[in-house]
UniProtKB/TrEMBL annotation:
CDD domains: ALDH_YwdH-P39616. It comes from the Bacteria. Coiled coil: none annotated. This is Aldehyde dehydrogenase.
Amino acid sequence: MSNARTILNEQRSFFETNQTKELFFRLQALKKLKAGIQQYEDSILDALKKDLNKSRSEAFLTEIGFLYSEIDHIISELPKWVKRQKVKTAMTHTGAKGYVYQQPYGIALIIAPWNYPFQLALAPLIGAIAAGNCAVIKPSEYTPETSAIIKELINEIYPSSFVAVVEGAVETSQQLLDENFDYIFFTGSVPVGRKVMEQASKHLTPVTLELGGKSPAIIHHDANLEIAAKRIAWGKFTNAGQTCVAPDYLYVHEDIRQSFLSELKHQIQLMYGEHPLDNDDFVRIVHEKHFDRLASFLSNGTTILGGKTDRDRLKIEPTVLTGISWDDEIMQDEIFGPILPILSYQQLDEVVTGIQQHPNPLAFYFFSDNDALAEAIIDKVSFGGGCINDTMYHLATPYLPFGGIGTSGTGAYHGKDSFLTFSHQKSVLKQTTAFDVPLRYPHMKNGFKWIKRIMK
């Protein structure tokens, strides 16, 4: 029997005790998680530095601080969420009462990526615990230090019959996916997401897929150029662009193109210095294969900023490319690195057409002071989530669901949506026995006539 099967059987037995469904158990488990993260905070930050060269401030902001806020929010709201919800009763159901109960799926498999290896392993876990599930976490093998800390942390605060961490490479993920989990939550690339969904289909297992895609940003002629440049630079080059919701490419209105590019270069240099390869806090590329893929894009278009690389340290400067078209190699797939292609436009309609001719992006960003125009663009473009006059911040609030559409993913989480994602909404009708409405019975005289009149 495989290790995965053993863990699954142990968790199945524990789940069937119904302990995880008790509100007190869930709240205590979430409090233990927060306390554990606090206890391991320095070790987590050290691991992220070793794996990806993340600075302590960037690592805390993007990996740890979000989790604290998420746990606090869910703890405060969970007593309301777990209660059965009474719904309206249709006229045809006079005398009955309808309720929706939130039921945990059972055993959840969480497969985490390498780009935010701590946050994206534990954020889904928060939702799984809140909903009353057991869970198995498979962290990324590309960030081994963080993976080891996750395992140590989880082993210290939870029994493996409740939450377990399984380390390993692709073969381990395959072994886990061969098992019959009750829910699968995957964050990663589109090609791997397809394989996960294919495996899940063998057991008809429900899935959430948090994928990616080419997320556009549009800088309109009436945008605040300083603010736009600053927020684009931060959103694109945080984590060296290895972020699923980073602006993948920019459309800039021709009337402000030169002014914006000048401001963008200025903001990038303010954030990362004149020599970013020597910036001790600039995040590195995760592995050589990904580095080589990104470096091949540097021959596209014209480099107006950056372009230098250091393969020994797996670093690529924040780079801005112009003279780019949809025919260039860099525009064929998600970049997932610190290279920003710039396209220009005169009419917004041509931008919308260009975006619509490609798979739905995970994120979309529009910079303009024209609210009516922003609303019109939101209506026309299909995307997972996004911002007006900002980048990436939409995923940091527990009050907005975060997820993709089409090839950028399926399902959503954060805040209440994390709880709902890992819960089955079980519908129950409680019927009265004080009286009986005879119309539904086949022997009722003139029953068909009355049914047609009522249900017309």
